[in-house]
Design brief:
Rossmann fold; 6-stranded mixed sheet; 14 strands; 25% strand
């Protein structure tokens, strides 16, 4: 069995987290007793701003050593067996960028070398294969500074995939992308998630798409829900409603409920809302089939938490919070960083 294969494949989850806790040197506790398992396919990690998502991603990718608990990737411990973990992982951080003056294929070829792919012929073939997979073959000779935001994100996926990892970790992938690029990115995640584990962290529910097999909700550093999307949808039954009313009454309703959409016609306002409880306003009509986004909003509204979609700016690690030797070349996945240090 090679180092890139799962240990005890038939029984070992791709990612297994038990009792994970992390407190920064400032005293801020970002994660508090997280338990989580992820198998093959697309796994969505949802949570509002400051929930601890990015901290969890960094721990899984061996960039931060946790304060307590255990994290295993393919059976390997992220603290004691970092090199093994990094060989299995591909990582797309929120801030992938740089390389502006380099050509697309040059960037990917360089990062492939840093990931340990030293045989030129095989490396070039793999680079071409991955560029085709992410839809960048036609711009392989273009400089990165000439790419659209969506193309840069796809290049980030390519660098995370080039060494053929079993597990892909993606952190807030579509922030700043236009709707067309978001759709293209979701399709790409669905395609590559058929044969590997993808852990996708986001506060934008639509990022998950129909391919998401399981969802975990992280709030206040704790997992408050884990299960397949239909289970979350079931929890929202009777909690999502539509109502058509006057402008004055609409303002009162908006102050009491989370509003999903608002439209005006013939002097009347139609609201689609989620309720914190099961008691709905008079004349409201229950939505029989709420969307996943509405179900997420209903779940968080019951907890008294806002779910406004905005970029995660949770506490960043301070001095001393990184694992020694985990400094990275900008945009390089963990395996590349480890190989760079070893060389």
């Amino acid at each position: 069995m090679t180092s890139t294969q799962l240990r005890n494949t038939t029984s070992t989850p791709a990612i297994e987290i038990k009792g994970l806790r992390h407190t920064y040197h400032s005293g801020h506790t970002a994660l508090d007793g997280v338990n989580l398992t992820c198998g093959v396919g697309l796994f969505g990690l949802l949570g509002p701003n400051g929930a601890g998502k990015s901290t969890l991603m960094r721990i899984i990718c061996t960039l931060i050593e946790p304060s307590a608990g255990q994290v295993r990737v393919g059976g390997y411990d992220v603290t004691r067996e970092r090199r093994r973990v990094r060989e299995m992982l591909g990582y797309l951080p929120q801030d992938f960028g740089g390389w502006r003056l380099h050509r697309v294929e040059e960037v990917l070829d360089t990062l492939a070398q840093l990931s340990g792919m030293l045989e030129k012929k095989k490396r070039r073939a793999r680079v071409a294969e991955v560029l085709h997979q992410v839809g960048l073959s036609d711009v392989a000779h273009r400089k990165v500074k000439k790419l659209s935001g969506g193309m840069v994100r796809r290049l980030g996926v390519a660098q995370a995939l080039v060494h053929e990892p079993k597990v892909l970790v993606v952190d807030e992938p579509t922030v700043g992308l236009d709707p067309e690029e978001r759709i293209r990115f979701r399709k790409l995640m669905a395609d590559i998630g058929r044969e590997r584990t993808i852990l996708l962290s986001t506060h934008i529910v639509a990022d998950l798409g129909a391919a998401c097999r399981e969802i975990a909700l992280l709030d206040g550093g704790q997992i408050v829900f884990q299960g397949p999307p239909p289970e979350l949808l079931a929890l929202a039954k009777g909690r999502v409603f539509e109502i058509t009313t006057s402008s004055a009454e609409a303002e009162a309703l908006e102050s009491r409920h989370e509003v999903v959409s608002r439209s005006i016609a013939n002097g009347k306002v139609t609201l689609r809302c989620v309720s914190e409880g099961r008691e709905l306003p008079p004349s409201a009509t229950v939505v029989e089939e709420p969307t996943l986004e509405e179900s997420y909003m209903a779940f968080m509204a019951e907890r008294g938490r806002t779910t406004a979609a905005r970029q995660d700016d949770e506490h960043l690690p301070g001095k001393g919070d990184r694992v020694e030797g985990a400094d990275k070349v900008e945009g390089v996945d963990p395996a590349a960083a480890e190989n760079r240090q070893a060389g």
